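Backbone-to-sequence.
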């Protein structure tokens, strides 16, 4: 049986996906936590809102890590983790931006 050769390009793509899973997943979970805790704080005490958002962020992190390896390309893995993270981060920062503009 002949061993398959793995070239440098393949290894770089896998490393990029792993970095997208770890770094992009972390960014997505952080943005999700911030945005959801602000949303939940309107209907429950702040401590409970932050704890609930943090526990649900672990699920979001796992989904993002799975997406990084499910995506068709490494660019898709990065886009699928960082674009939603930027959107959620903007949603979390919107109240401060609005208050600063007034």
């Amino acid at each position: 049986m002949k061993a398959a050769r793995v070239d440098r390009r393949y290894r770089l793509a896998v490393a990029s996906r792993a970095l997208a899973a770890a770094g992009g997943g972390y960014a997505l979970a952080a943005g999700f936590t911030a945005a959801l805790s602000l949303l939940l704080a309107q209907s429950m005490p702040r401590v409970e809102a932050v704890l609930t958002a943090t526990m649900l962020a672990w699920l979001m992190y796992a989904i993002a890590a799975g997406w990084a390896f499910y995506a068709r390309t490494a660019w898709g893995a990065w886009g699928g983790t960082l674009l939603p993270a930027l959107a959620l981060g903007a949603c979390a920062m919107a109240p401060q931006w609005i208050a600063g503009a007034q």
